[in-house]
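User: For a reading group we're discussing how well predicted structures match intuition. Take Oxidoreductase, zinc-binding dehydrogenase family. Before you show the prediction, I'll give you the sequence so everyone sees exactly what went in.
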Amino acid sequence: MFKALIVDKDDTGKTHAAVQDITLDRLPAGDVTVAVDYSTVNYKDGLCIGPGGGLVRHYPHIPGIDFAGTVEASDDPRYAPGDKVVLTGWRVGEAHWGGYAQKARVKADWLVPLPDGLTTRAAMAVGTAGFTAMLAVMALEDHGIKSGPVLVTGAAGGVGSVATAILAHLGYQVAAVTGRPETADYLTSLGATQIVAREDLAETVKRPLEGETWGGCVDAVGGAMLARVLGQMEYGASVAAVGLAGGANLPATVIPFLLRGVNLLGIDSVMQPYDNRLRAWARIARDLPMDKLDAMIQPATLAELPQLGADILAGRVKGRVVVDVNA
Ligand code: NDP
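Assistant: Thanks. Here is the predicted 3D structure of Oxidoreductase, zinc-binding dehydrogenase family, as structure tokens, for the group to look at:
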């Protein structure tokens, strides 16, 4: 028997989440069984702990879109018992049972060997949010970061915190946008050189072009803020669009693309090919200062997940929630 957070639907369609003891035979089919050490709380997890938001395919369900742990059994030659592994993406925790359990069974193709220099706890402090932040930074680098500060929106959240720490470590000036002024010291400790109040970017676009201010942007917020930021980018600069915490509609004009050559780069962490995953995890192990990572961690247990799921959807979580599934 092992512990898992099971989300189920009752006859009225209402979902309920509770920690239960279950047996290995209930896990879905897969080549590799992993003894999970840690998982995390991401925005999608908040949706999947609750009514699902269209993400969960079948109930009962175990959420947890990422995990790190040790291989317990493997039918695939690439993995042997005792190997440390990490998983993000592939709709695990949505269409397939995920990491909010002491055991998980998945396809070998979805796993990545834990990179040298990272513990399973550090890998999950990074988790899906941090992995995505790294992909965003790599996309900005590929397109060239200009001279101005790099803007990070939703900075006190998971993606924003890791993006801020990586960019600062790489030597860029980082302007961190937050709606929570009380997180200013935290963001400065991660390396932000400028704090921008959310309300300064909240007004909808009045002029399609404003002063050329930002040399690049990692955007976790989308919506009206992204539309506004597009008109403030330097000529030829890029925005890596990661999320929609502030809304899915983009009330923008095409002018920043036509007259400033701005690039809007979409970042998807879910379907990244294996080689890209390896490259991103190797860069994380190299370019993310581990002392900064410690400052981002909020520890949690399986029993605390229902509350934390609601917190992340309400934008109340700071940094990264790391779930010790064995605590
Ligand atoms: P968090 O909730 O940890 O962070 C989001 C942050 O956005 C909040 O902390 C808050 O930052 C800010 N925010 C929240 N609501 C609003 C609002 N209404 N207007 C403006 N800002 C707001 O989530 P994550 O960092 O884990 O994820 C961020 C987004 O990225 C989500 O939409 C998520 O689904 C997406 N995502 C996408 C991935 C991909 O593959 N493309 C992978 C991972 C995440 P502050 O308090 O500092 O203002």
